[in-house]
Specification:
It is built from 9 helices and 12 strands. By secondary structure, the chain is of the alpha+beta class. It folds into 2 domains: 256 residues, Aminohydrolase, N-terminal nucleophile (Ntn) domain (Glutamine Phosphoribosylpyrophosphate, subunit 1, domain 1, 4-Layer Sandwich); 40 residues, no CATH class.
Length: 308
């Protein structure tokens, strides 16, 4: 299913959105490939990252593309308008399913179903379409007109926003994310790494690029995530800049310096040297006691160690 990541940051007090995606996807009847483009421009100000069923995701993107021509996204309406398009698309899928399977429309089922085809058959149809899923995941990332700030806050002409569309979100498929988002089969690990790095909008552009790069690397063991990756920076004027070879080299150097380390190695000497750090000592374990005071003390010790 792949992984896509977006994170907001600031450079020279102006918003930037860092985008990352792999290229792996499935071609029906053929197999997997590392040539699937998972980015779709839906307007000058908004771009979408795609995961799950790419064909359906692209269809949904086209609907957002047309929607934005008449109804721009704002800070106040973003979630509402994104939900509206999503639900219209899901209704269209339900309508297509009913027409293909039973020869009746969704509107007919809802308004006249019980009178024309009976209570039992109507209930069966409703149960069928209740199990339908869009099978699409999107990150919508873009810029809106700056809103009036609170007293003492600085006014910016453009503000960055991220909205996630995924039925994996329990209850509501649409969430407005303040700082970052991830979708695809690797989204859990990617989000965990960004949380670990305390990624937030106050982070610098290079810090954010590295955090996204690292998060993507950590998802490589997840089934469905491709090795190849692209990283771009989206600017408020619609400009998009791709991370260069020098940029990737810098990220790799940062990863070697700050990234998680493996203790397993194919080199036997290195493996033995690393394993010495994991020798167990009898003093490391003690008789069990449900001692809350000791547990709290250890937690404080860990917290103090992290702040040093």
């Amino acid at each position: 299913m792949s992984v896509c990541i977006a994170a907001i940051c600031y450079e020279d007090d102006q918003p930037r959105i860092v985008l990352c995606r792999d290229w792996k996807g499935e071609i029906a009847g053929v197999g997997s490939t590392e040539t699937i483009a998972k980015e779709h421009a839906i307007s000058k100000d908004w771009i979408a990252l795609l995961a799950d069923n790419i064909s359906r995701s692209q269809e949904l993107c086209v609907r957002y593309q047309y929607h934005l021509k008449t109804q721009p996204f704002t800070e106040q309406n973003l979630g509402t308008e994104v939900r509206k398009v999503f639900h219209e698309y899901k209704k269209a899928l339900a309508d297509s399913y009913l027409k293909s399977t039973y020869g009746i429309s969704f509107d007919h089922l809802i308004t006249n179903g019980r009178d024309s085809i009976g209570e039992k058959f109507t209930t069966q149809c409703l149960e069928d379409i209740s199990r339908l899923t869009v099978n699409s995941q999107l990150i919508l990332a873009g810029f809106i007109e700056g809103s009036r700030p609170l007293v003492g806050a600085e006014y910016r002409e453009r503000e960055a926003m991220i909205c996630t569309v995924s039925e994996m979100n329990e209850g509501d498929p649409v969430t407005v994310d303040e700082e970052f988002s991830a979708i695809g089969s690797g989204h859990t690990i990617a989000r965990a790494m960004l949380c670990l790095r305390e990624q937030e909008i106050q982070c610098s552009l290079m810090q954010t690029i590295y955090a996204v790069y690292e998060a993507k690397l950590m998802t490589l063991k997840v089934p469905g995530v491709g090795e190849a990756m692209s990283i771009e920076v989206f600017y408020p004027d619609g400009t998009m800049k791709a991370l260069s070879d020098n940029g990737f080299d810098r990220c790799f150097a940062l990863f070697r310096r700050f990234g998680p380390k493996l203790w397993r190695s194919t080199d036997e000497k290195s493996q033995k040297r690393a394993m010495k750090w994991f020798d167990i000592d009898d003093s490391y374990l003690e008789d069990f006691s449900d001692d809350l005071e000791s547990a709290v003390g250890r937690a404080k010790q860990i917290e103090e160690g992290q702040t040093k």
